[in-house]
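May I ask for an example protein's residues together with how it folds?

___
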Amino acid sequence: MLARERLFAPLLSMPASVPWPQPAGIRRTLEIAAAVATMGCLIMAAALPNDRDNASSRASGGIPVSTALQPGRETDFGAYLGAPYHVPSDFHLVKKGVTDLTIKNVNWYTHPFENPLYYGIRLQRWFTGRFGSMIDFTHSKVYAPLDEEAPFEGTFDGKPLPPTAKPKDYFKKLEWTHGHNMLTLNGLIRLPSLGIVSPYFGAGAGLSFPHSEIHPKTDPSRTYEYQYTGPAGQALFGLEFRLPTGSVFVEYKFTLADYWGPLTGRDGTWFPIDMLNQFSRWWKGEEPPNGWAGARLTSHQVIGGFLTRFVPKTAGAR
């Protein structure tokens, strides 16, 4: 087995910059923005305490309901939606002795507001008012535009490739859409607050667990399963708007994920079963029947979401 074909050795090809893909249309964009704004308003309205809650809390002598101006020790659980942009990068497929294909500068599409949605969930723990940690799960998507011409290099099924072609000439499917999944552990630092606005930044690393759907035309069946494909990392900066019992936040995230996964030609099932099957094949040293494929996925992401705040009694006491 080649060293880079092992699960812990993804590709190291560098992405190149090309223009951002054009949006589908202003009307569609406005509809999406209105839907997201409506969802956010409903969540905020549900999270806000009423006057009766405030009065009962003060009367009981417990922790005050509002900790908006008192960032300190707390645990936050939240969810978010967003829109990513994947920097164009090279896609590679290697089947030993048969295929060694490279598609240069693929303009990866995202379709974040089409099913399945781009979304994420996170659990934060602030140990002090300044330092914290976060487990962050991001579900994004990656589509290769099959109808767009792109530079090709190498060989496919033992034949040399033309200098330019369309991916659909060689692939029935080329995407990670259920999705481009990243699980990271992050460190967080909170900057001085400006009223209820609390800026923060952080960075972390973790693993990529995409759901691959790749089907070269020469393969009898597609690869359609969850896979571990390599490491992932991210850096982030955000603004948290602290409400009485929760927060709304907007954030920029930069993520980097190296994909190098087996083409098994099988339809997977549930995530744990797919992971067990992959580990079993790796442990036995089995080569995947249809080779290996991957890319380096570099992404800029703008997200927005909400957090529910849990404050220790001593931290909230006056």
